[in-house]
Each structure stands twice: as structure tokens, then as C-alpha cells.
Design goal:
Blueprint (H helix, E strand, L loop, with lengths): L7 E4 L5 H12 L3 E4 L4 H13 L3 E4 L9 H13 L4 E4 L14 H35 L6 E8 H5 L5 H20 L5 E8 L2 E2 L10 E5 L2 E5 L3 H10 L6 E2 H12 L10 E4 L4
Parallel strand pairs: 1-2, 1-4, 2-3, 4-5, 5-6, 6-11, 7-10
Antiparallel strand pairs: 8-9
């Protein structure tokens, strides 16, 4: 038996990278998953991989920034699994520039994916969570639910060329602290994980010019090997983190062991 048997977990951006690694960990603990990705193929591949191991998952494909996404995401969980126990706001990407060269489009695109989308998802989840919590309280039962928002070291300390990303990731910390106070009466633990350098397709070492396409925009990805080497020299653990390690830190906040932890932000950076 897993520690999350029967729980329903919704994870944005879980078709690849950290989100996918977390989805596998949650499924391994018995949770039923609502998988989201911008693209259908990685979302369905993740669902298939979970089912192949005996788990249960369904996909909700699309951009988290779409005006109707939050309601559709929550509806998927309710229709398939009749409830919500865990919400992880993980989806995101970077679109960097120094402030004097940053456009309004760059600013709002990053604010929307990292801050507005989580706000909308949690707002849409409230009626479902509130109704369940009130019913459980009337029955004399204490059932904890989990919200984990993803921030960044850039949100805590800033980073050159990332005024949009840093502002959004600082904002999600504020949202976390506020919801931990608003939703405590519903027995919801609301916490935040701030990542340092984690190796994903966005940050992989490369000597080539690589891009990905997100909502019609071609965005540069990857970093020079010399930058990775320099980070390893500064980081006490000597290297960037791996997606599986990042996912493990989020899992900690989803388990029953975290039932009396709320409103906290943990920096997962190998000590950097």
C-alpha cells in the first residue's frame, strides 16, 4: 500500500521533466493522476506509462494560461475521480531579457504562466475542496489536502535577465503564504518549493543553438557547458540537480508526514 492510496493529484506540466518525474512518484504512492501538458503526445505518453505500471491517470491537455483551462482541469478531476486531494502548480518556462529590452509580451507571458495560472487553478479548486472539507468536518474527520506551488531561487534572490520570471516566482511565494492562512481551516497544507538549477530540456548543457516552440513562440533553450561547470564550482554538492531529485522534494510536501507544515518555502539548490 502507498501513502497516497486513493488520493487524486493534479499536476500541471507533467508530460515531461520534473512534472513527469513527480507524477511517477505520486502514482507509485497510490495516487490517481490528472496529467497536463501543452502538447497531447507527452501527456498521453505519461498517462500510458503510469497505467503500464498499474496506476490510474487521465490527461487534460492544453495551455495553463488559457482562460478556460482552470475550470477544465478541475472538471477533469471531478468527473473522473470525484474529488481533489493534491494540486501541484509546476508548469512553466523562461523567456529572458534585461529589463530595458523586455517587451510587454515577454513580461505578461511569464507572469501568466507562473502566477496567474496557479491563481486561477486554485480559485477553481476552492468549491470542490471546501465542500469536501466541510462534509468531513461535520463527520468528525480530519482529512488533509495538499497544494504545492513551484518557485525558484530567482524568485527569492533575483537573477540577471529574469525580471519577469523573478517577479512571478516571488509572487507565487506570496500566494502560497496567503492561501496557507485562508485554507488552513479547510485542512489544506499550502507550501512552496523553490528550485535552484535543475537539469531539464530548458537548462541542458549544449554548444548548439536550440529552441522550443511554446504557443507559437520560438524560445531559446540550453546553456553553455562552461556555465554548468561554473555552477558546479559554486554549488556545495558540485552539480545541478536532476529532475527526479527535484520531484522528490515536491513529494515530501504531498505526503502525510507534512500534515503540520504549511506556508513554507524550501529552497532545493544543492546548498547553493
Amino acid at each position: 500500500m502507498g501513502k497516497l492510496d486513493g488520493k487524486v493529484a493534479l499536476v500541471t506540466g507533467s508530460g515531461r521533466g520534473i512534472g513527469q518525474a513527480l507524477a511517477f512518484k505520486l502514482a507509485g504512492e497510490g495516487a490517481r493522476l490528472v496529467i497536463n501538458d501543452l502538447d497531447a503526445e507527452p501527456a498521453q505518453e505519461t498517462v500510458a506509462a503510469i497505467k503500464a505500471k498499474g496506476g490510474d491517470a487521465v490527461a487534460c491537455v492544453g495551455s495553463v494560461t488559457a482562460p478556460d483551462f482552470a475550470e477544465r482541469f478541475i472538471k477533469t478531476a471531478v468527473e473522473h475521480y470525484k474529488g481533489i486531494d493534491i494540486v501541484v502548480n509546476n508548469a512553466g518556462y523562461t523567456w529572458d531579457n534585461v529589463i530595458q529590452k523586455m517587451t510587454d509580451e515577454q513580461w505578461y507571458a511569464i507572469i501568466d504562466v507562473h502566477l496567474t495560472a496557479p491563481f486561477r487553478i486554485l480559485r477553481a479548486a476552492y468549491p470542490v475542496i471546501s465542500a469536501a472539507a466541510k462534509k468531513e468536518a461535520a463527520e468528525g474527520r480530519e482529512v488533509f489536502r495538499k497544494v504545492v506551488n513551484i518557485s525558484s531561487g530567482a524568485g527569492l534572490n533575483g537573477n540577471v535577465g529574469q525580471s519577469n520570471y523573478s517577479a512571478a516566482k516571488a509572487g507565487i511565494v506570496g500566494l502560497t503564504k496567503t492561501l496557507s492562512k485562508e485554507w488552513g481551516r479547510l485542512k489544506v497544507n499550502v507550501n512552496c518549493v523553490a528550485f535552484g538549477w535543475i537539469e531539464t530540456r530548458l537548462t541542458e548543457p549544449t554548444t548548439e543553438a536550440k529552441t522550443i516552440t511554446i504557443e507559437g513562440r520560438k524560445l531559446a533553450v540550453g546553456v553553455g557547458p562552461h556555465i554548468v561547470e561554473a555552477y558546479g564550482q559554486r554549488c556545495p554538492l558540485g552539480r545541478p540537480g536532476k529532475a527526479d531529485e527535484a520531484a522528490g522534494s515536491v513529494l515530501l510536501y504531498c505526503l502525510p508526514e507534512s500534515n503540520y507544515i504549511s506556508g513554507q518555502t524550501i529552497l532545493v539548490s544543492g546548498g547553493a
